[in-house]
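Bug #77: duplicate submission created two jobs. Keeping one. Sequence:
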Amino acid sequence: MNFTALQTNGLKLMLSIAQRSNGTPVQAPVLAEFENLKVGYVGKILFKLRTAGLIQAARGKNGGYSLVRDGEEISVFDVLKALEVKEFDSHVCPNVRKNNPCAHSKDCGLRPVMQSIDNYIETLTSSISLTALVQDEKEMVSRLQHMDL
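Kept job's structure:
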């Protein structure tokens, strides 16, 4: 399962905000430079994250973006959902999410597989907070190996 570039970059930006804010807002150009992204693209992502209620913007000389809640209260799923574009739904079967009858057969075997994958991803990403992402890679690998999903 692949995530969109928007989702991946959104996660990186949220992690950067969580790591760099220290109680003060982080400006979009600083985030863009650190993540090696164009400022306009970063602005687009930040707008979506702000609209979803995950970050807030402060104007002015010392303005920028900060998390609305503590990083422990924001999950990876929250970020993915805010930037969601469910590509597999339309490419595999447009009826998967809607639970509509399948056009290919009365008893579609693909729908439960796709729904299980979707549920697994939601369960996994809901259990990982931004704060957890600040851990080093070895700690995260260990944590993932010991998760009971």
